[in-house]
Amino acid sequence: MKRLLTLTFLAITTAIPAAFAEEGTIALDDLTDDIVPTVARPGADRDFDGNGPIMTLGTELTIGRNGRAVFASVIFSAREDGGDGTATSIRTAPTEVWRWRPSDGARFVSRIITNPTVTTRLRSVPGCAPIGCATIGPAEDGGLILTQRNLPGYLNAVTYLSDTMGDDISTDQNPHGDTSIRNISFDPIVVEFSSQLGG
Length: 199
Hints:
This protein is mostly beta strands.
């Protein structure tokens, strides 16, 4: 009599944890590289000549490196308020302002919840040689270097130079004595974290 051998196979399953998503905040690094527009509107000179300028700053945040970085791009423009219409603008390449670190563990940025785009108007002041810049703040070429606060969105502060006593639009990307952004600082932003790298 043959003995019937029955083999029983056990199905072994490995549980794969589901991806999680949670909200949190991250602190962004300052933008410290000078932002210096050099292109002037055709037919105009390079001097705002005390007519403004009217200056607009826009920033945009984007996610990069599969959720392991956040980048900031800047659009900065300045135009003469009257005169011969001198104007300039520049858009920067994305600059990394947050980077994932191993201590963050499996928490990658999947979405920026804070409005990622902010636009603001910067105050402009004329060259101040008649009243003496040195008595009221740092100056270059007769123009005040200002820091503006109380800005919209995630913008904390912007340091910049607007109108000076000479030409204002740079020809060499050297910010000294030219209309330029010197520093942009940010407030923390709210993001969504995921345990999985983005695609």
